[in-house]
Amino acid sequence: MPHPTARVLEWFGVDDAFERGRPPIGRSDVLLAVLVEAVSLLALELVRSAGGFSHTDVPVWAQWFAVSSGAVLLLGRRRWPLTVALIASVHMFVAGVTMPEVMGQVSLQIIYFVAILSGVAWARDRRAMVLVMGLIVLFMFAWITWQFALGSSVQDWLDDEELSEHIGFFPPIPAAIAITLLINVIYFGGAIIGGGVSWRAARQRGRLEEQAVTIAAQAGRLRDQAVVDERLRIARDLHDVVAHGVSAMGIQAGAARRVLDRDPDAACTALANVEEASREAVTQMRHLLGTLREGTAERTERTTDAGVRDLPDLVADVAGQGLAVNLDVVEAQADAAGRLSRGIGLAVYRTVQEALTNVRRHSTADTVSVVVRIDESQPRPYAEVEVVDNGRPRHGTSGSGLGQLGIRERAATHGGQVDIGPRVTGGYRVRVRYPLAVSR
């Protein structure tokens, strides 16, 4: 078990690596000093008018100077905390010896209290702070002891209060000494402990700020890593799509070469297929170059051949995990889903996959509706996927946002439009529309 002295030193931050900032003298310090001086001088004159300084021979200007100089000390209480605490202690001693009635004013006592508290709260060198505060407390109690031992302060106080007779539980002189010591213990102890609490609160705020900076930096690194991972994954996906197109081009070109002399019409059809496959491959490569400028992460396994026809299996897997999922594929033309390019089909599949993953992880929903609409007859043909749930965000499961960012990025790859967010009637919706004209 640590020694009590060691625990006290630890509480005051001795040998702690934290150093509180030393702000320059600002407008708030000036306003505080001016306000304290004005109130102190007003209180001084009110006490004088009430006859409180009848036994004081010190000139008025000296009394004003004592109050004003004490208020000025507050200017540097944060900039030079230990120096101000030492000067305030000397100020208290000199004023107490030369003009005790003025030193005993509440305004000056508040000034001394704030100066000592600031010395503990703002000192950067904690060992020096302990030494300085120890000297101040030792000197002040030595001064009180000297007054009790060699002076007549106790008897003077008893005579002023007309308490020389024994009228309570305790004798007058021991009671006067005890109350004086108690007041000073509370006064200096309160200032020192209050300063320690303030310093520890500042240290806690500093640590929280450092943690926030560290967390932000780590989040940035994770986001960057997720971007790189997504770029690589999209590159692999689109590479497979393009490789499929190039393979088809090779097969069709070989077929055209073999029948060119015997069947020109078949060769023309094969060459047309080569043209279409090459155009789609170039389009996918162009999308790849645009996507790799910016990226994000979707933590899903690699399924580059997945498409709309694979959605029932995906829905069945999710439904097996306690979530009711209704799938509806609406095709305005027969077999419209089968005519989707591999890139669009994979994008639709990934969008549904990521949306369902988000529902499982971050929502209270128990029912999800997945609707895929494909219409090739419109002036702008499209394939649209909409995922709607009936839940609310689950507390304590806020994600990084990378999943939704991945949906947006994949949609941008194909020139799609994204609408993600809570619904007015309740639940959450993810809707992405992919223009088919862009993909072809």
TrEMBL record:
Q: Which reaction does it catalyse?
A: ATP + protein L-histidine = ADP + protein N-phospho-L-histidine
Please provide, in alphabetical order, the Gene Ontology terms of the cellular component aspect for this entry.
membrane
User: At the top level of its lineage, which domain of life is listed?
Assistant: Bacteria
- State the InterPro entries in the record: HATPase_C_sf (IPR036890), HATPase_dom (IPR003594), Sensor_HK_TwoCompSys (IPR050482), Sig_transdc_His_kin_sub3_dim/P (IPR011712)
Keywords on record: ATP-binding, Kinase, Membrane, Nucleotide-binding, Phosphoprotein, Transferase, Transmembrane, Transmembrane helix, Two-component regulatory system
Pfam families xrefs: HATPase_c, HisKA_3
Asked if Electron transport is a keyword of the record, the answer is: no
According to its UniProt record, the EC number is: 2.7.13.3
Q: Which SMART domains match?
A: HATPase_c
Segments spanning the bilayer are 82-100, 106-123, 130-149, 169-197
Histidine kinase/HSP90-like ATPase domain location is: 343-438
Q: Which residues form the signal peptide?
A: none
Could you cite one Gene Ontology molecular function of this protein?
Answer: ATP binding
What SUPFAM superfamilies is this protein classified in?
A: ATPase domain of HSP90 chaperone/DNA topoisomerase II/histidine kinase
Name of this protein:
histidine kinase
Upper lineage is: Bacteria, Bacillati, Actinomycetota, Actinomycetes, Propionibacteriales
